Amino acid sequence: MMNHIEIKSGIEQMDIVAIHHFLSHDSYWAKGISFELVKASLENSFCMGAFLDGRQVGFGRVITDYHTFGWLADVYVLPEYRGRGISKEMMRFMTEQPWVGKLRRLMLNTLDAHELYRGYGFNNLTNPVMLMEVYRPDVHLAKSSS
């Protein structure tokens, strides 16, 4: 039986080293990302983490202005803890934040978790012809010119 999962928010609660390790080594979307870039992205997001016995086993963040728009990003649960409802706990925690219910639009990208997110109100784009993007999936690998 798994011990109780605790969901916490705020960058000061997050294990940035562990988050960076997962994103840079195990994610399909941010392999090779630098620690500095991860840390900076967390500093400018609403962060939430899933903890078991003090160890961070899951993470997600919302890039948001807290009033009109949010982008859910970098959501993961460590492989050995998947299938235990941890991602659902994180999604419940996020959707219960008072400001989330007031956002005009909340978006995300996912390769394989569509059904999870549908359970929390996410759907296919209503009018995809209205959305545009600049897509640079490997920009985090470019050397800084500073």
If you had to describe this structure to a student in words, what would you say it looks like?
By secondary structure, the protein is of the alpha+beta class. It has 4 helices and 5 strands. It has a 5-stranded mixed sheet with strand order 1-2-3-4-5, with helices on both faces. The chain is globular and about 45 Å long. The model has no long low-confidence stretch (mean pLDDT 93).
Short description:
Helices cover 24% and strands 23% of the residues. The chain has 146 residues and is α+β, with helices and mostly antiparallel strands. Helix 1 crosses helix 2.
Largest sheet: 5 strands, mixed
What helical percentage do the residues reach?
10-25%
**Residue windows where pLDDT falls under 50 for at least 5 positions:** none
**What's the order of the H and E elements?**
EHHEEEHEH
**Average pLDDT reading:** 93
Beta-strand portion reads 15-25%
Overall body shape: globular
Structural class: alpha+beta
What is the secondary structure topology, with strand pairs?
Elements: E1 6-9, H1 16-26, H2 35-43, E2 46-52, E3 55-64, E4 69-77, H3 86-95, E5 105-108, H4 114-118
Parallel strand pairs: 4-5
Antiparallel strand pairs: 1-2, 2-3, 3-4
Helix pairs in contact: 1-2
Distinctive features:
five-stranded mixed beta sheet, 23% strand, globular, alpha+beta
